[in-house]
């Protein structure tokens, strides 16, 4: 992946440093004023810092991954992101005597976000479905990786439960069944570029924020509970929407191969949600009862960010506009 085009003074400065050999630098101040989920400059800067812990960028020296001054700059970005999440996400409080599985189910049931899956199933045109897949490629092409950071931080039953979920995500060791590979087939079926990070330029801040929240929780051991709750909410809200995505893609002419990613999630996630809520999160809270609030907060973050994403996409489509960003290259070609 190449470094994307800067979206402000913050990313312009950061990328200028990253194109050089690793060195100490003073990060520019992080401007305030925008809600963090709408701050294009901040979300792209944070996404870039996190990506160095995944596959990196072709023109960025691998030594940058642990360069102290870059980590200090990332810490400043993270503080802004965490503060913004705290303002945007009502923090649930655990109730004594209520099992974690039930608390998570009640949190999911109370979510009143717009149903993007219903629109894609019945009303979306082919270009809108392609836009949706473009957004989702930012996460699905590395599906499961952010949550896998939790494995070495767990023990016993919660660890075994997470490994069971992740083994399915990675196709049980078979490349062709890895969920990221199934999603690549969906992208090819829609004539989209299936290479990793191909559409970072096109996606807006909220799409990057969805990905960044997973990396934030995954890369910090202090957020272990939030990471588990995030995964549980992810699994508990997956099966029914993926069924609708498959129906929508079939309506638009998508073949079995293109729909297989969604069909796979209908069955797999129906099982995963039970494992995630009861065995993984429930087991974790039984071992660490004082961390129950963290688990619920991680789930609430997943639900809130997904709602904000759906509101952005559907809002743009209601205005007969694209939900993606128009790059300078595209604008100049018209």
UniProtKB/TrEMBL annotation:
Gene3D superfamilies: Heme oxygenase-like. GO terms for molecular function: oxidoreductase activity. SMART domains: Haem_oxygenase_2. It holds the Pfam family Haem_oxygenas_2. This is Iron-containing redox enzyme family protein. Its EC number is 1.-.-.-. The lineage of its organism: Bacteria, Bacillati, Actinomycetota, Actinomycetes, Streptosporangiales. Keywords: Oxidoreductase. InterPro entries: Haem_Oase-like_multi-hlx.
């Amino acid at each position: 992946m190449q470094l994307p085009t800067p979206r402000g003074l913050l990313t312009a400065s950061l990328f200028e440093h990253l194109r050089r050999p690793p060195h100490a630098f003073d990060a520019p101040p992080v401007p305030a004023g925008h809600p963090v989920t709408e701050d294009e400059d901040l979300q792209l800067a944070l996404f870039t810092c996190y990506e160095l812990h995944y596959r990196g960028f072709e023109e960025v020296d691998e030594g940058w991954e642990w360069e102290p001054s870059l980590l200090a700059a990332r810490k400043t970005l993270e503080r802004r992101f965490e503060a913004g999440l705290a303002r945007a996400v009502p923090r649930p409080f655990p109730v004594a005597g209520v099992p974690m599985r039930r608390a998570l189910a009640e949190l999911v049931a109370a979510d009143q976000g717009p149903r993007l899956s219903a629109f894609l199933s019945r009303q979306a045109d082919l270009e809108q479905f392609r836009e949706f897949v473009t957004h989702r490629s930012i996460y699905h092409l590395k599906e499961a990786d952010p949550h896998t950071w939790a494995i070495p931080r767990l023990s016993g039953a919660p660890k075994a439960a997470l490994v069971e979920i992740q083994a399915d995500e990675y196709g049980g060791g078979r490349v062709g069944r890895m969920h990221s590979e199934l999603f690549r087939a969906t992208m090819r079926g829609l004539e989209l570029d299936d290479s990793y990070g191909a559409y970072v330029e096109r996606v807006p801040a909220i799409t990057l924020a969805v990905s960044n929240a997973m990396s934030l929780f995954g890369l910090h051991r202090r957020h272990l509970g939030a990471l588990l709750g995030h995964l549980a909410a992810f699994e508990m809200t997956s099966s029914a929407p993926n069924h609708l995505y498959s129906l929508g893609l079939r309506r638009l002419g998508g073949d079995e191969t293109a729909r297989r990613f969604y069909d796979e999630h209908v069955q797999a996630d129906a099982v995963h949600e039970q494992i995630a809520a009861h065995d993984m999160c429930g087991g974790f809270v039984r071992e660490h009862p004082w961390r129950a609030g963290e688990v619920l907060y991680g789930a609430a973050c997943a639900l809130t960010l997904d709602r904000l994403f759906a509101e952005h996409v559907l809002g743009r489509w209601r205005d007969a506009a694209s939900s993606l960003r128009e790059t300078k290259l595209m604008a100049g070609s018209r």
